[in-house]
From TrEMBL:
<keyword id="KW-0677">Repeat</keyword>
<dbReference type="InterPro" id="IPR011042">
    <property type="entry name" value="6-blade_b-propeller_TolB-like"/>
</dbReference>
<dbReference type="InterPro" id="IPR050952">
    <property type="entry name" value="TRIM-NHL_E3_ligases"/>
</dbReference>
<dbReference type="GO" id="GO:0008270">
    <property type="term" value="F:zinc ion binding"/>
</dbReference>
<dbReference type="InterPro" id="IPR001258">
    <property type="entry name" value="NHL_repeat"/>
</dbReference>
<dbReference type="Pfam" id="PF01436">
    <property type="entry name" value="NHL"/>
</dbReference>
<protein>
    <recommendedName>
        <fullName>SMP-30/Gluconolactonase/LRE-like region domain-containing protein</fullName>
    </recommendedName>
</protein>
Length: 233
Protein backbone atom coordinates (compact mmCIF):
# COMPACT_ATOMS: atom_id res chain seq x y z
CA UNK A 1 0.00 0.00 0.00
CA UNK A 2 1.33 3.41 -0.93
CA UNK A 3 1.98 5.92 1.78
CA UNK A 4 0.08 9.12 1.06
CA UNK A 5 2.07 12.33 1.13
CA UNK A 6 0.93 15.87 0.53
CA UNK A 7 2.75 18.94 -0.67
CA UNK A 8 2.01 22.05 1.35
CA UNK A 9 2.17 25.60 0.05
CA UNK A 10 3.03 28.23 2.64
CA UNK A 11 3.12 31.96 2.03
CA UNK A 12 5.56 33.75 4.34
CA UNK A 13 6.21 37.42 5.00
CA UNK A 14 9.57 38.07 6.64
CA UNK A 15 10.43 41.37 8.30
CA UNK A 16 13.56 39.92 9.93
CA UNK A 17 15.21 36.54 10.38
CA UNK A 18 16.20 37.25 13.97
CA UNK A 19 13.06 36.23 15.85
CA UNK A 20 10.43 33.61 15.13
CA UNK A 21 7.74 36.04 16.33
CA UNK A 22 8.44 38.23 13.29
CA UNK A 23 7.57 35.47 10.81
CA UNK A 24 4.01 35.36 9.50
CA UNK A 25 2.96 32.16 7.71
CA UNK A 26 -0.33 31.55 5.93
CA UNK A 27 -1.48 28.08 4.83
CA UNK A 28 -2.44 28.19 1.15
CA UNK A 29 -3.22 24.61 0.13
CA UNK A 30 -2.16 20.97 -0.12
CA UNK A 31 -1.94 18.43 -2.91
CA UNK A 32 -4.26 15.42 -2.99
CA UNK A 33 -2.25 13.37 -5.49
CA UNK A 34 -0.94 10.01 -4.23
CA UNK A 35 2.80 10.58 -3.78
CA UNK A 36 5.27 8.18 -2.19
CA UNK A 37 8.32 9.80 -0.56
CA UNK A 38 8.42 12.94 -2.76
CA UNK A 39 11.75 14.76 -2.87
CA UNK A 40 12.80 17.62 -5.12
CA UNK A 41 10.50 20.29 -6.58
CA UNK A 42 11.23 22.31 -9.70
CA UNK A 43 9.19 24.84 -11.64
CA UNK A 44 9.22 24.61 -15.42
CA UNK A 45 11.03 27.43 -17.19
CA UNK A 46 7.75 29.19 -17.99
CA UNK A 47 6.51 28.75 -14.41
CA UNK A 48 3.35 26.96 -15.54
CA UNK A 49 4.12 23.50 -14.15
CA UNK A 50 5.55 22.15 -10.89
CA UNK A 51 7.67 19.00 -11.35
CA UNK A 52 7.88 16.66 -8.34
CA UNK A 53 10.40 13.83 -7.96
CA UNK A 54 8.10 11.04 -6.74
CA UNK A 55 10.76 8.63 -5.44
CA UNK A 56 8.61 5.73 -4.26
CA UNK A 57 6.47 5.72 -7.40
CA UNK A 58 9.52 5.90 -9.72
CA UNK A 59 8.24 8.87 -11.68
CA UNK A 60 8.06 12.62 -12.11
CA UNK A 61 4.65 14.10 -11.27
CA UNK A 62 3.52 17.38 -12.81
CA UNK A 63 1.20 19.60 -10.76
CA UNK A 64 -0.47 22.95 -11.27
CA UNK A 65 1.75 25.29 -9.19
CA UNK A 66 -1.21 27.50 -8.20
CA UNK A 67 -3.66 24.79 -7.12
CA UNK A 68 -1.40 21.71 -6.70
CA UNK A 69 -3.87 19.75 -8.82
CA UNK A 70 -2.51 16.76 -10.75
CA UNK A 71 -1.78 17.38 -14.44
CA UNK A 72 0.37 14.49 -15.62
CA UNK A 73 3.22 12.11 -14.77
CA UNK A 74 5.96 10.32 -16.65
CA UNK A 75 8.66 7.71 -16.15
CA UNK A 76 6.90 5.04 -14.07
CA UNK A 77 7.56 2.43 -16.76
CA UNK A 78 11.34 2.97 -16.82
CA UNK A 79 12.53 5.13 -13.89
CA UNK A 80 13.55 3.77 -10.48
CA UNK A 81 14.00 5.87 -7.34
CA UNK A 82 13.54 9.26 -9.02
CA UNK A 83 15.24 11.92 -6.83
CA UNK A 84 15.83 15.19 -8.70
CA UNK A 85 14.99 17.15 -11.84
CA UNK A 86 16.35 20.24 -13.58
CA UNK A 87 15.83 21.97 -16.91
CA UNK A 88 18.10 23.11 -19.70
CA UNK A 89 17.53 26.45 -21.47
CA UNK A 90 15.84 24.53 -24.31
CA UNK A 91 13.29 23.11 -21.85
CA UNK A 92 14.76 19.61 -21.78
CA UNK A 93 14.29 17.82 -18.46
CA UNK A 94 17.22 16.09 -16.76
CA UNK A 95 16.05 13.55 -14.18
CA UNK A 96 18.17 11.85 -11.50
CA UNK A 97 17.04 8.26 -12.10
CA UNK A 98 18.87 7.09 -9.00
CA UNK A 99 18.45 3.32 -8.89
CA UNK A 100 19.12 3.04 -12.63
CA UNK A 101 22.45 4.87 -12.14
CA UNK A 102 21.75 7.51 -14.75
CA UNK A 103 20.46 10.94 -15.64
CA UNK A 104 17.48 10.40 -17.93
CA UNK A 105 16.97 13.14 -20.53
CA UNK A 106 13.58 14.15 -21.92
CA UNK A 107 12.30 16.46 -24.59
CA UNK A 108 9.31 18.26 -23.12
CA UNK A 109 6.34 19.28 -25.25
CA UNK A 110 4.15 20.95 -22.68
CA UNK A 111 3.59 18.17 -20.16
CA UNK A 112 4.43 15.37 -22.61
CA UNK A 113 7.87 13.87 -22.02
CA UNK A 114 9.84 11.93 -24.63
CA UNK A 115 12.88 9.99 -23.41
CA UNK A 116 15.78 10.87 -25.72
CA UNK A 117 18.97 9.85 -23.94
CA UNK A 118 20.93 9.35 -20.75
CA UNK A 119 24.15 10.18 -18.93
CA UNK A 120 25.78 7.24 -17.14
CA UNK A 121 29.56 7.52 -17.26
CA UNK A 122 31.32 7.42 -13.84
CA UNK A 123 28.11 7.90 -11.82
CA UNK A 124 26.18 5.55 -9.55
CA UNK A 125 23.10 6.44 -7.55
CA UNK A 126 22.77 10.05 -8.72
CA UNK A 127 20.87 12.12 -6.15
CA UNK A 128 21.39 15.63 -7.56
CA UNK A 129 21.47 17.16 -11.04
CA UNK A 130 22.17 20.77 -12.01
CA UNK A 131 22.04 22.37 -15.45
CA UNK A 132 24.59 25.20 -15.40
CA UNK A 133 24.42 28.38 -17.52
CA UNK A 134 27.78 27.34 -19.02
CA UNK A 135 26.03 24.42 -20.74
CA UNK A 136 27.42 21.70 -18.48
CA UNK A 137 25.34 19.16 -16.57
CA UNK A 138 26.58 18.50 -13.02
CA UNK A 139 25.64 15.23 -11.32
CA UNK A 140 26.15 14.21 -7.68
CA UNK A 141 26.70 10.44 -7.47
CA UNK A 142 25.65 9.37 -3.97
CA UNK A 143 26.88 5.80 -4.50
CA UNK A 144 29.95 6.66 -6.58
CA UNK A 145 30.94 9.38 -4.07
CA UNK A 146 31.70 11.98 -6.71
CA UNK A 147 30.44 14.89 -8.76
CA UNK A 148 30.76 14.58 -12.53
CA UNK A 149 30.36 17.37 -15.09
CA UNK A 150 29.10 16.50 -18.57
CA UNK A 151 29.03 18.59 -21.72
CA UNK A 152 27.63 17.39 -25.03
CA UNK A 153 27.34 13.95 -23.44
CA UNK A 154 31.02 13.74 -22.49
CA UNK A 155 32.72 13.93 -19.08
CA UNK A 156 34.66 17.20 -18.77
CA UNK A 157 35.45 17.23 -15.03
CA UNK A 158 35.16 15.06 -11.93
CA UNK A 159 35.54 15.61 -8.18
CA UNK A 160 36.06 12.45 -6.13
CA UNK A 161 36.74 11.84 -2.43
CA UNK A 162 33.17 12.70 -1.40
CA UNK A 163 30.74 10.65 0.69
CA UNK A 164 27.12 10.31 -0.43
CA UNK A 165 26.90 13.77 -2.04
CA UNK A 166 23.34 14.98 -2.58
CA UNK A 167 21.97 18.33 -3.67
CA UNK A 168 23.64 20.77 -6.10
CA UNK A 169 22.56 24.40 -6.39
CA UNK A 170 23.85 27.43 -8.29
CA UNK A 171 24.88 30.55 -6.38
CA UNK A 172 24.67 34.12 -7.78
CA UNK A 173 28.32 34.08 -8.92
CA UNK A 174 27.74 30.88 -10.96
CA UNK A 175 29.69 28.73 -8.51
CA UNK A 176 28.03 25.57 -7.20
CA UNK A 177 27.05 24.63 -3.66
CA UNK A 178 27.23 20.89 -2.94
CA UNK A 179 25.81 19.07 0.07
CA UNK A 180 28.53 16.49 0.84
CA UNK A 181 26.23 14.59 3.16
CA UNK A 182 28.45 11.77 4.41
CA UNK A 183 31.27 14.19 5.21
CA UNK A 184 28.91 16.55 7.09
CA UNK A 185 29.91 19.59 5.08
CA UNK A 186 28.88 22.06 2.40
CA UNK A 187 31.32 22.70 -0.43
CA UNK A 188 31.44 25.68 -2.76
CA UNK A 189 32.74 24.45 -6.11
CA UNK A 190 33.94 26.30 -9.19
CA UNK A 191 32.47 25.29 -12.56
CA UNK A 192 35.66 23.25 -13.07
CA UNK A 193 34.92 21.42 -9.77
CA UNK A 194 37.69 22.97 -7.73
CA UNK A 195 36.83 23.37 -4.03
CA UNK A 196 36.71 27.10 -3.28
CA UNK A 197 35.24 26.95 0.23
CA UNK A 198 34.31 24.35 2.83
CA UNK A 199 31.73 24.77 5.59
CA UNK A 200 32.21 22.12 8.27
CA UNK A 201 32.68 21.75 12.02
CA UNK A 202 31.72 24.68 14.26
CA UNK A 203 29.69 26.81 14.04
CA UNK A 204 27.75 24.73 11.49
CA UNK A 205 27.87 21.29 13.16
CA UNK A 206 26.31 19.60 10.12
CA UNK A 207 25.17 16.00 10.47
CA UNK A 208 24.01 14.43 7.23
CA UNK A 209 23.28 17.73 5.47
CA UNK A 210 21.38 16.92 2.27
CA UNK A 211 19.19 19.58 0.67
CA UNK A 212 19.53 23.29 0.10
CA UNK A 213 18.42 26.42 -1.67
CA UNK A 214 20.24 29.65 -2.48
CA UNK A 215 18.49 33.01 -2.30
CA UNK A 216 19.16 35.80 -4.80
CA UNK A 217 21.41 37.60 -2.31
CA UNK A 218 23.54 34.46 -1.89
CA UNK A 219 22.05 33.37 1.43
CA UNK A 220 22.36 29.59 1.77
CA UNK A 221 19.52 27.61 3.37
CA UNK A 222 20.23 23.95 4.12
CA UNK A 223 18.33 20.97 5.49
CA UNK A 224 20.59 19.36 8.10
CA UNK A 225 18.86 15.98 8.17
CA UNK A 226 20.24 14.17 11.20
CA UNK A 227 20.19 17.33 13.32
CA UNK A 228 16.54 17.85 12.33
CA UNK A 229 17.30 21.49 11.56
CA UNK A 230 17.09 24.10 8.82
CA UNK A 231 20.16 26.35 8.85
CA UNK A 232 20.59 29.74 7.21
CA UNK A 233 24.11 30.89 6.28
Amino acid sequence: MLRKFVLLYLAGAFSTFSFAADVEIQFVGASTTELDNPHDLKLSLDGRHLFVSDVGNDQVVILNPDTLEFISAFGSDHQSGTHDVDFGPDGRAYVADTHNNRIAIYDMNGTNAEFIGQLTERIRGPEGVLVHPNGAIYVAGAWSNNVVAFKNGNVIAELSGLRAPHDLELNPSSDIWLADSGNDRMLLLSPTLEIKRELSGPPYHFNGVRYQDVLQDGTLIVADKNNHQIKMI
